[in-house]
Predict the structure.
Amino acid sequence: MSFNTVQKNHPQAAKLFQVLSFLNPDGVLIGFLQSGIKGLPNDLQAMVASHIDLAKALLELERLSLPKWNRVTKTLVIHRLVESAIRDRMSEEEQITLSTIVINICHESFPKVLINDTHPVCRIYFGQGLTPLLNMKYGNAEAMKMHEDVLTKRRLIFGDDNPDTLKSMHRVGPYVAAPRT
């Protein structure tokens, strides 16, 4: 019911919430979303680019207890059941569209060059991108490409012997985690 209210009164906030429901369930960094702004549809780009419009949308969503907005850590947390309910009411076409948006956000948010100066950002954003990408269906060719890209970056940042890298390799499977040449 809360989501229906948001859709009626603030459609852009509802669209943003749908995107958020496909991102990191442990907390979406607002900075990650802003870094990946080019991956958003044009109308959401304008809203996320404006601190005032973004704050208004987040306040509307928070007023209805949809996300929890931690202003200190600048994160948004959506309960997994709420995420699931939002996803369940979407058509398959809508889910594919949102999955593509998430892939684009993840792609845009990561630095294009991996150097010492960009490693801290990559470390912070890695968890933001990995969980949503792992939750996507492998039938999406773009998702598969993004999985490979994320794993490659993880290897470069943390190395092949890092326990988290190894865990990621195990989760995404041998066809993605083949050794580098």
